[in-house]
Description:
Number of strands: 6
Number of domains: 1
CATH architecture: 3-Layer(aba) Sandwich
Oligomer: single chain
Shape: globular
CATH class: Alpha Beta
Order of helices and strands: HHHEHEEHHEHHHHHEHEH
Amino acid sequence: MLRFCFLMFLVFASLPVYAVASCKSLLVPTARLSQSEINSLIPLSPDFLKKYGQTLFFDHDSPVSGNEKGQVTLVDFYDYQCAYCKQIARPLARLGDSFPEMRLVYKPLPMFGDESRAAAMAVISAGSRFHDLHNRLIEQSNLSESSIRQLAEESHVPASVLKSKKEMAEHELNRNLELMDKLDLTGTPSFVIARVTPSQFQKGEYGAVSAYFISDVLDVSALKELVKQFSQNPC
C-alpha cells in the first residue's frame, strides 16, 4: 500500500501544475458566444508560457491600451493591410470602456509584404504617439511606404525618430514573428486571451496562468462576450 501511494505521488508530482479552475471550463455559451467558439480556445501550456509568456503579455516595446494593470489581457496580432483587422480595430479599442479590467496588447505583423512591414515598424517606433498613428494607418485604405512616412509625420513621428528607433523596432517585430511561428498563426487577426499578472511570471507560477490562443475567427460581439466572462470569472 505504501509503495502504491509512493508511486501515485510520483505520477502526480510529474504532472504540470494548472490553475484549479481554468477560465475555459467556466465559460458559458450565450447568444453572442457559441459553444464551438468556446471550443476554439486552445490552452497555452506552462512550458510555452515559461519561454514566451513574458514577451507575449508584458513586452515593454509592445503598445498597450486600456488598463495597463488589468488582469484580463487580449493580445491582438494584426496587419495594417488586413481588411478585417481594419474593420474591427476601433470596436476592439473601445472594449476597454466596457471592461475596466482589460488591457489590449498590440502585435503588428508584416503578413502582406513590404508596406505591412513599414507600417509595423513605424507604429512600434511611435512611442506615446502610437494611438494617433495606429488610427491613421487603420483608416488609410491603400498604404505605400511614402504614405506611411507621411502619416507618421502627421502623427508627430518624424523620419529622424523612425531612423533612431529602427533597431528597436526590428527587434520587436522579430519577437512578434517568433510568437507568430510558435503559436502557428496563419492569418490575421489572431488573438490570445488570458487572466494574467506580472507577478505570476516573476514568481514562476506559469501553471496558474489561464491563457488561450483563439483558433477561430471571432467577431467583435463574441470577443466582447469572451472578455466579459473572463472579467467576471476569478479563474
